[in-house]
Amino acid sequence: MKIKTAVFVKSSSLHEQCPKADRPEYAFIGRSNVGKSSLINALTGFGSLAKTSSKPGKTQVINHFMINDTWYLVDLPGYGYAKVSQTDRQKWAQMIDGYLFNRENLTCTFVLVDSRIEPQKIDLEFMEKLGANGVPFCIVFTKTDKLRPPQLQTQLDNYRAKLLETWQEVPLIFVTSSESRVGQKEVLAQIEEWNKSN
Ligand code: GTP
Ligand code: MG
Q1: Mean pLDDT of all residues in 147-156
Q2: What is the CB < 6 Å shell around ligand 1?
Q3: What's the pLDDT tens digit per position in 164-194?
Q4: Residue-range domain boundaries for the chain
Q5: Are 139 and 174 in contact (CB under 8 A)?
Q6: How far is CA 27 from CA 51, 58, 72, 82, 172, in A?
Q7: What pTM did the predictor assign?
Q8: Atom 29 of ligand 1 has which residue's CA nearest to it?
Q9: Ligand 2 centroid to 78 CA: how many Å?
């Protein structure tokens, strides 16, 4: 799919404030600093659409971007950032859950995980929560430019094995890098497929 237009629509701190749920929507979620905003920029090809930072906790609200006038891409705040106060962390968690569990046009949630580290309890539990609430999701390995191919393969094999301890089937996994643009075509092709059936 070719991205012709990518436009910031609005920031919301409650799911009730989000734009009208009248078109397919895809949300990017994952731990703080995993690369959600960077991947949104890489995918759309519009360099600074979503704000990124080397410091975790950059994205703090639900950000809607309209793509090609036909679908929404959503940048969410990260979870699990230790330096945020307990109150703020709870507030973000409520905002994220409120959005994910109530957004009726949410076609798929992309759960981003850092390809360089072992499966994290916080990510696995987050996926279980999505499953328990019937929220469809797939997994995106990020920052794969930091790994050599054999290392990446080992990480992928480990992740799949870990998932199979809980899940009957492994969800769809995309291998990406916002630096090298690996995986971009595959993610966009999948979104195009889903858009057709929605
Ligand atoms: P929060 O909004 O704070 O939750 O973070 P985020 O998940 O949106 O991460 P963001 O996109 O802001 O990126 C965090 C840091 O990781 C930045 O310093 C990025 O430059 C870096 N980064 C993101 N994607 C990649 C990647 O594919 N490769 C490499 N090498 N660095 C990346
Ligand atoms: Mg961000």
Answers
A1: 97
A2: 30, 32-38, 52-54, 56-59, 77-78, 142-143, 145-146, 177-179
A3: 999 999 999 999 999 999 999 999 999 999 9
A4: 6-197
A5: yes
A6: 15, 16, 8, 23, 15
A7: 0.96
A8: 143
A9: 7
